[in-house]
Structure formats: structure tokens, C-alpha cells
Design a protein that fits this description.
It is a single chain. It contains three helices and 25 strands. Strands 3, 5, 7, 9, 12, 15, 16, 18, 19, 21 and 23 form an eleven-stranded parallel beta sheet that branches. Strands 1-2-4-6-8-11-14-17-20-22 form a ten-stranded parallel beta sheet, covered by helices on one side. A two-stranded parallel ribbon has the order 10-13. By secondary structure, the protein is mostly beta strands. It has one domain.
Length: about 350
């Protein structure tokens, strides 16, 4: 797969006018810039606005503390095995973190993480002031929650959590301002109940357990457990769908639906693709109308929907054919490469 790595990196580097791209590869015997993220972050050569590109590896990547403003890119998730999305990457091994924790220092403010496979986020960890303006997109996240080193009521502003597959999201000790949590699949609960929160947008998610919010705009979501209205202070609840009976009446909210009526389901589908709306789903065109457009509810609704396997929005090679052998006197060999943009 050396050809895959080199061509992918060539494409990425060509799109980067100034910042440098660094290869991270933990495979034994592979020559890369670094084996682990911690080594790259500690290097004086890696500076703000550089990119760390995690290549597929049979060895798990380790957690790290992010202390620089970087772009961090993986190759996606659910690429192989049962209920996976096949044919999206030529190398389906992926860059797997095994639920390792990423901690955020204030000096990481402005960073973007995308396409990472099974990470956890210790977002309450601050060596300095609050970490702001972090973008998490197209990542498989085990949890976003407090770390043991957090400072209560630390204010964290401007985070974007978009198009991710998340096991749980629980932040009740931090004060969150101007967060956007959109088009995610959240397989457990979401709890953002700090009374100091301000201006949270929770839109077009599939949430598979309970919801606990404070000071939010909550719309176009599909919930399969309950909404804790006790904490819905200063919160707008519009055009959501629930399999329970906990949504307040009016404002386009719909209670009492079923998974079978809403979603395609897992049979013949991928782990994340099962949450696409089936034909005739009551969630189709049930979202809040904005600028004359009425979207579907759930993560695949709106003009910026969830992307299967979190494939990052950069050119990728999804098929690669290389001869098994080449004659010793050959001066060339035939290679077939298939690419897509993933924008």
C-alpha cells in the first residue's frame, strides 16, 4: 500500500499552499515522519496550522494531548468487517485509536479533527484557559466528556461537532457557549445541563437514549428514549420526532413513532447506514422550514448530511490494482487507481 500512501499525500500536499502535511504511521517497518501523534506535537518542526495525516495501520494509535492548532485527519471508520461500508477506501485497515483519549489544551484552540476512528475526548482538560473553536467532524467518538483533570465551570466556546458517530456526549460541569451539534448519530445519551450554557444548537441528530439540555435550540432530531424537560430552560423544541411520548405538544414535534417506521434498519445495512430514513418514514420532510426549504429530520437530513464511515472531505483512493509480480527486465508496470473527492 506504499503507492496508496504516497499518492494520497501528494494530492493533499498539492491542496495545501503553506501549511505542511506530516505522515503518522505506526506500522513496524514503514518510514513516516512520526509513529505517534505525541511525537509530532512535541516536535519543534510541527507548527500551528500544519496537518497530521494518520495512515492505515495494523497497530493502534495512542492517545495524546493536543497543544497546537492543527488539522488532524484519519481515513474513516466502519471500513471492514460485519455491517461495514465497503469500497470507500482502498486500504480498509483504517487508523484505529481503540478508544484512546485526546485531551485539549487551550493552545489547541482552532483545531480541526476529522476521519478519526474510535477516539474519546477529554474536553474538560485545560492546562491554560478554555479550549475554544474546536471542530470535530466525521469522527467515530467513544465519548465526549469530562476528564479527571477538568476545572468546574470552565467556559468553552465555539465548538462544532458535526457528522460524527458518537457513543455518548456528557458535559455538565463545563459552561458551553455557541456550540453546534449537528447531523450526528449519538448511540447513547446527550447531557448538556450546565445552567451557565448559552446558545447551543442541537439539530438533525439521531439520539438513541435520553436528552438533558439547558439553554439550547433543539430541532429536527429523532430521539428514541426521553427528553428531560426539567432542564429545558431557555430551550426551543421544534420539529423533533420521538419513539416515546416526552416531546412537548405543538411546534411540529411528533411522539409515539417506532424505529421500524422511521429507519432502514440493520438488516442488509451498515452500522451507521441503518439510521437512514426508509421510504415513507414520518421523518421525511418533517424538519423545520428555513428559507423555504423543509428538510428531513435525523442525521441524513439538510444539505450537509452525515457521511457514511466519516470519510474525510479530501481526495481518497477507493480502489487500487497493482500487479502481483513484474518481470525483472520490465521498465514499467500497469497500476490502476480509482479516486473520488468526498466533498
Amino acid at each position: 500500500m506504499k503507492y496508496l500512501f504516497l499518492l494520497s499525500l501528494f494530492i493533499i500536499i498539492e491542496t495545501q499552499s503553506q501549511a505542511k502535511v506530516w505522515r503518522i504511521n505506526s506500522n513496524i517497518g514503514v518510514t513516516a515522519d512520526f509513529q505517534q501523534a505525541a511525537q509530532a506535537i512535541a516536535s519543534p518542526g510541527v507548527v500551528n496550522d500544519d496537518t497530521l495525516y494518520f495512515e492505515p495501520s495494523s497497530t493502534n494509535y495512542q492517545g495524546f494531548t493536543l497543544s497546537k492548532r492543527l488539522v488532524i485527519i484519519g481515513s474513516g471508520y466502519f471500513l471492514s468487517g460485519t455491517n461495514s461500508n465497503l469500497g470507500l477506501q482502498a486500504d480498509p485497515t483504517g487508523a484505529y485509536f481503540g478508544n484512546a483519549t485526546i485531551l485539549f489544551d487551550s493552545t489547541a484552540s482552532g483545531s480541526t479533527l476529522m476521519g478519526l476512528n474510535y477516539i474519546s475526548m477529554g474536553v474538560g482538560f485545560n492546562l491554560g484557559s478554555a479550549t475554544d473553536n474546536i471542530t470535530l467532524t466525521r469522527c467515530f467518538i467513544g465519548s465526549i466528556g469530562q476528564y479527571y483533570g477538568y476545572t468546574a465551570n470552565t467556559k468553552m466556546s465555539g465548538w462544532v461537532v458535526n457528522k460524527c458517530y458518537i457513543s455518548s456526549l456528557g458535559l455538565t460541569n463545563e459552561v458551553l457557549e455557541n456550540w453546534q451539534i449537528t447531523n450526528n448519530i449519538i448511540t447513547s445519551s446527550i447531557s448538556l445541563g450546565n445552567t451557565g450554557n448559552f446558545n447551543l444548537l442541537i439539530r438533525n441528530n439521531a439520539i438513541r437514549s435520553s436528552v438533558d439540555l439547558y439553554s439550547a435550540y433543539f430541532s429536527n432530531n429523532i430521539i428514541t428514549n426521553n427528553v428531560n424537560t426539567t432542564y429545558m430552560v431557555n430551550t426551543t423544541i421544534k420539529n423533533n420526532i420521538s419513539t416515546g411520548n416526552n416531546l412537548p405538544a405543538g411546534n411540529g414535534n411528533i411522539n409515539g413513532q417506532t424505529d421500524a417506521a422511521l429507519f432502514e434498519g440493520l438488516t442488509g445495512n451498515s452500522t451507521d447506514g441503518q439510521w437512514r430514513l426508509k421510504a415513507g418514514s414520518p421523518a421525511i420532510s418533517a424538519g423545520e422550514t428555513i428559507s423555504g426549504i423543509t428538510p428531513d429530520c435525523g442525521p441524513f437530513g439538510t444539505a450537509d448530511p452525515y457521511i457514511l464511515s466519516g470519510i474525510p472531505p479530501i481526495p481518497t483512493i477507493y480502489a487500487l490494482t497493482v500487479p502481483a509480480s513484474v518481470p525483472s527486465n520490465a521498465t514499467s508496470m500497469q497500476i490502476t487507481i480509482s479516486t473520488r473527492s468526498n466533498n
